[in-house]
Amino acid sequence: MNICYYCFMKLNELKLTNPYLALPAECHDRVKPAPLKNPFLIHANEAVAEILGIDKEELHTGRFVDFANGAFQPEGSDTFAMCYAGHQFGFFVERLGDGRAINIGTLNGLHMQLKGAGQTKYSRSGDGRAVLRSSIREYLMSEAMHGLGIGTTRALALIGSEHSVYRQEWEKGAIVLRVSPSWVRFGTFEYFAHKKRFKELEALADYAIAESYPHLVGLEDTYALFFGEVVEKTARLMAEWQAVGFNHGVMNTDNMSIAGLTIDYGPYAFLDDYDAGYICNHTDQYGRYSFGNQPTIGEWNLRALMAALSPLIPREKMEERIAQYWKVYRQHYIQLMGRKLGFDTIQDGDLELIRHMLGTLQGLHMDYTLFFRTLSRYTGDRTDILKLGLYHQPMKDWLDDYDKRLLQNTSTPSEREERMLKLNPKFVLKNYMLQEVIDAAHEHDFAPLDALFRIAQDPYAEHPEFEHWADATPDVYKNRKLSCSS
Q1: Which of 79, 68, 65 is nearest to 32 (CA)?
Q2: pLDDT digit string, tens, across residues 141-176
Q3: How far is the C-alpha of 218 from the C-alpha of 387, rounded, in Å?
Q4: How far apart are the first and last CA of the chain?
């Protein structure tokens, strides 16, 4: 996206558009935000403001707080909630929608939402609010995923308030002003297919193609090509999650982006010790959305989307494209893992070496992120790597195979180290780190939040002042589960 560095606007100069409102009326419901009481700015994202074309000096004004609170609506704003359905833990729910997110308009190709701005038609008896802890988690993690190079929604601002919200106990309400090039979900298509509203379904497909796949507009078999690209983007996203050790936790079809983005951050987690069976969501009793099952659920969700699109696309054409899912996933995953291991090229046998490594990490209860960062500086001296686990022989066995494989590299050890340090983050935002920030925020101390935000923006840098967050997760905090309201 081209940015005009001399065209930044004041808030009263913004002119928003609402392209989604051109769709049939059943696709959305117009609703006004309900501002929080006594709002205040917690954090603003200057990088996102730059993309939007907003003058960064505006981020520290009362008008900006009003903007993030829904009390100030720029020219062109026409607020609404989006309608969709979805499979939740495998069971179809025919009516969901934005229950606590209100769209305020589009600027420079990004659609802005206020998450936590009050009830909508789709709140299902909920209050439409978001609490401070969950808002902090979404604000920080969306920036962290961007910093890691993984497709994601982002956020412009986080505001707090004195507004009381009840979630098992009384907490303070907050709003995340989040942005995305698309908020269309798999479940959006499911809603209209289930209702047999095929004209709306076709209009939605045309909209999604123009918005996220404009290069397909006007081509023959546009809808089939569209589905094929969604398959590929989803497969690649799953590979990126698995390679970096990210567990989404709620991969319902209403939480799956048609544009291949990570959306709707709830009880997510980055792995502490490597565990393929890790479940970060305590609601997920049977492990449907466990870390290791995410690629399989990616395909499951695509098949749900395929059923929804069947009025528009012959099933055999979609079967041809979804048949490529595992090929795309495996190729991308092996490429990512090979690069994390410092290999110049991918060769036969690398997948087996990767599997051997993961089994070793799981058996030794090794920290996933710390292992790769330590391996990045491996020169043959095994001391630092062996320190990461209590038992040494399994890792020695794997390192024997790794040493042999490195002999096939043509790059020098120093070149390999330089590449690996750019691919293996020193920091990921683990849940214990986020909890430290949340605890401080409840005491109105937002300095830890700002520190974690800076780490999120550049997770590959050394950040020596935050060295304690680069260590393995303390045992007492490892692999905890969270609720969907987190």
Answers
A1: 79
A2: 999 999 999 999 999 999 999 999 999 899 999 999
A3: 58
A4: 33
pLDDT tens per residue across span 382-416: 999 999 999 999 999 999 999 999 999 999 999 99
Q: Which two tokens stand for residue 301?
A: 């969700």
For the annotated catalytic residues, the residue numbers are: 254
Distances (CA, A) of 336 to 152, 195, 259, 269: 18, 41, 21, 20
Q: Which residue, chain included where needed, has tokens 């750019």?
A: 422
Name the token pair of 71: 């009390």
User: Where exactly are the structural domains of the chain?
Assistant: 11-180, 186-323, 336-366+377-423
Number of CB atoms found within 10 A of residue 199's CB: 9
How far, CA to CA in Å, does 392 sit from each of 158, 272, 366, 405, 406?
45, 19, 11, 20, 20
Q: Where are the beta strands (DSSP E) in 153-294?
A: 154-160, 164-167, 169-180, 246-247, 269-270
pTM recorded for the entire structure? 0.96
**94, 100 in Cβ contact below 8 A?**
no
Tell me how crowded residue 197 is: count the other CB atoms within 10 A of its CB: 17
CA atoms within 13 A on the CB side of 184: 27
Please state, in angstroms and rounded to a whole number, the distance separating the CA atoms of residues 481 and 108: 38
